[in-house]
Amino acid sequence: MPEIWRLTVHVRHRGGTPAVDSTAYVAPNVVLSGDVSVGPGCRVLYGAVLTAEGGPVTLGNGCIVMEGAVLRGTPGSPLSLGDDVLVGPHAYLSGCEVRDRAYIARGVTVLNGACIEADTELRINAVVHINTRIPQGETVPISWVAVGDPATCYPPDRHDEIWALQKPLDFPRTAFQVDRNTEGMSDIMRKYARGLGRHADDEVLP
Question: DSSP labels for 42-72?
């Protein structure tokens, strides 16, 4: 195994340990935390973070994760990439399914429960909201917001129309298991802090 490989940070978290195929390349200073699986021929570049926060993170064959991207699996919402998926620099993917040959550009955000079907293109700074499905072959334009199943896409200045579709998708319950009507930000922070506090028991692997 090349010496440079040892500079990658592998972390045992909640009993899960990363697994990297021998044909994959993971750059120095990448963090792989918990139940993370990097498939054959994948390339994970500098500064990326793949973290299984109660849900696994799985990369199929031939995926590329660019610099500074964050891929997060969450309780009840695993994160998976199919084959030949590109995740651009500084993209943020949480608890979503991305199918084969999808193109995720720089700065894209994809949130919990979303499904990005095969051969789709999410352009720079696009946002795919909670529990939203992008049908096969569709494109989300630069900085637009996709909401619903199947998705409707809006420019970011159409907040009222976005919110009308977004509110029933129930971000607080999906992301934090919090009831919007009876619990507030303090409840969200307590629950989130409790989950993230489990990192106190992490073990950085040799």
Answer: -EE-TT-EEEESSS-EEE-TT-EE-TT-EEE
pLDDT digits 0-9 by tens, 157-203: 999 998 888 888 888 788 877 787 787 888 888 888 888 888 999 99
> Which tokens go with 114?
């979303």
| pLDDT for res 1 | 46
Sort strands 103-104 and 64-65 into parallel, antiparallel or unpaired.
unpaired
Q: From the CB of residue 199, how many other CB atoms can be counted at a distance below 10 Å?
A: 14
Q: How many CA atoms lie within 13 A of 80 on its CB side?
A: 13
Six token digits for residue 24 = 């994959």
Provide the 10 A C-beta neighbour count for residue 159: 11
Length of the chain: 206
CA dihedral for 131, 77, 29, 195, sign (positive or negative)? positive
pTM reported for the whole predicted model? 0.91
**Cα–Cα distance measured from residue 132 to residue 146, given in angstroms and rounded to the nearest whole number:** 7
Q: Is 173 helix (H, G, I), strand (E, B) or coil?
A: helix
Phi–psi pair at 22, nearest 5 degrees? -65, -20
Confidence of residue 4 (pLDDT cuts 50, 70, 90): low
